[in-house]
Model the fold of this input.
Amino acid sequence: MSTGTTKSGSLQSPQSAIPDFYYVLIAFYEPALTILGFIGALCDPETTHNTQAPWPADSPPPTPLPRASVVTVVQLAHVCALMGLINFFMLTAARRHLASQVIVQEKIVRALLIPLLIGDVVHLYVTLWALGDERWDVARWSPMLWTTIILGLTLMIPRVMWHLGVWRYMDSRDNVHVHVQAQSQNDVKEKGTDI
Done:
């Protein structure tokens, strides 16, 4: 494991690959959204289904909702809630058990966030694709559709930021600086003993 230096010159561990901002967002905010969505789908699958997109005026939503649609809505909401729980447990374990191994921590977190980022992009694309010719008629979008798009962006943008190394330890960028600082400190110590 590499180490960095403080202003006083003592060695310390590098910053986390999953600092508080990302930890709160991905391990608490996202699971809260997904679990609340699951609870909403369980309580009212028909509304959850019918508010996903605008309905044509000449074709109102089915009443009652077909059993297959209820099962699909609840299963999809369950999968989303499960992903939120996986985020919580994976990131909590990475912070707790890999805090002193930040390079490994970064690799584990990246292994979680790459598929989540791919999922964010595909989810946005598929949502817009499924709207067909009405995808850019935003005035007709339902509140649920707006919520889906906006909340999806509140998750996707920070994931892109994480991959770019914003506000976190990034081995490919920071490990070089850590080694240079440690080498500079060793050089100073060696020169100090020669005098």
Q: What stands out?
A: The chain has six helices and two strands. The CA atoms of residues 40 and 48 lie 7 Å apart.
